Amino acid sequence: MFDNPSLLLDTAATPEGQFNWKSPSNLAIVKYWGKYGVQYPRNPSISFTLENAFTQTILAYELKTDQGEGISLDFTFHGEENEAFKTKMVKFLGSITNIFPFLNQLHLTIKSGNSFPHSAGIASSASSMSALALSLCSLEDELFQTLQDDVLFDKKASYVARLGSGSACRSIYGGMAAWGKTEVISGSSNDYAVSFSEELHDIYKNFHDDILIASKSEKSVSSRAGHALMEGNDYATPRYQQANARMKKLVEVLKNGDVETFGTIAENEALTLHALMMTSDPSYILMRPNSLKMIELIRNYRAETKHPIYFSLDAGPNLHVLYPESVIHEVRPFIEEQLVPLCEEDLWISDWVGEGPEQLEEVGEGQ
Ligand code: PMV
């Protein structure tokens, strides 16, 4: 839908410059798991956009000296060359030249880095792909002034981010964002995410999402492979129906502030995601013993204290601990005393619902 063969540079001009974008990760409450075509979701999903877990990407460009076809790229991650990431990036950029044909005319330098230790076992594709998509849209707008309308800019950035990593399309918007066609969110689309912040009850606007690192080891099965395994999963069809029904219920409680129902759905979704992994063929388990210990501790603590504290999981072993700001003074000591000792090297990230990506003026050092 964003193909545009006319976005070609007059090579007599010699543009050069750079953009610096910081873009956060997100945590889905109703999860996207299963896809078709070019990164289209089998069911709608909705997520909190985080604040402290982010990627910062600097994209510098100049006219290619040799005007041959193909992507010309220098890439560093945390200041170091990374061949595996670079290969992935070249492949991705090469796959979107129908959207940004000028990419074949430029030499690009991308310097990227995450706010969290990249070995922390936290998926960074949402933050990195959204930061890249935003940088590419800034570049298009700089060269052609075609994305002056902010709504269009965000829509295109979300569309491009989706092509890089499905869930990344939701990171373009602060607060909450939904992706995938659903009758309960007007304007929702399989092509890009839409903001769900306007109708959001105040209690969720600064909700906490502490990330507890149960294991920093690399996942044994990638999300890409996990999505693919859904195609042969016996539970796939009922799962997609369930996700649609949960979306309906969740949207209601996101509007009315019923945190208990919110928490019940969040936990069920997390466990459903992992149940789908366990029931795939071949089956696999990404939770670690300490993930389960933490889940048990959270549920016991909730039963004893009646505090609204819930958990979620991404496609990995790490716990996302969810609670409203109003109980932070009670809940924090519990997290620090009982959950953090179960983390690998006591590693955890204090995070909360954030305002979304930010374009930085200054180009930082050491990325
Ligand atoms: O965006 P991907 O392809 O890495 O898939 C991630 C899917 C989950 O994080 C498990 C769920 C979600 O909706 O974010």
Task: Please characterize this protein's 3D structure.
The protein has helices at 83-95, 125-144, 150-164, 223-229, 236-256, 259-278, 289-305, 328-339, and strands spanning 16-30, 35-36, 40-41, 45-63, 72-77, 80-81, 106-114, 176-179, 193-195, 208-212, 310-313, 319-323, 348-349, 358-359. The chain is an alpha+beta fold and 367 residues long. It folds into two domains: 16-199, Ribosomal Protein S5, domain 2 (2-Layer Sandwich); 202-349, 2-Layer Sandwich (Alpha-Beta Plaits), CATH 3.30.70. Strands 1, 4, 5, 6, 7, 8, 9 and 14 form an eight-stranded mixed sheet that branches. A four-stranded antiparallel sheet has the order 11-12-10-13. Helix 2 crosses helix 3 and helix 5 (236-256) runs antiparallel to helix 6. The radius of gyration is 21 Å and the shape is globular. The chain starts with 15 loop residues before the first strand and ends in an 8-residue tail after the last strand.
**Ligands and ions found:** (3R)-3-hydroxy-3-methyl-5-(phosphonooxy)pentanoic acid
What is the count of structural domains? 2
Q: Average pLDDT value? A: 95
**Secondary-structure element order, N to C:** EEEEEEHEHHEEEHHHHEEHEE
Give the name of the CATH architecture of the largest domain. Answer: 2-Layer Sandwich
Integer-rounded radius of gyration: 21 Å
Large-scale geometry: globular
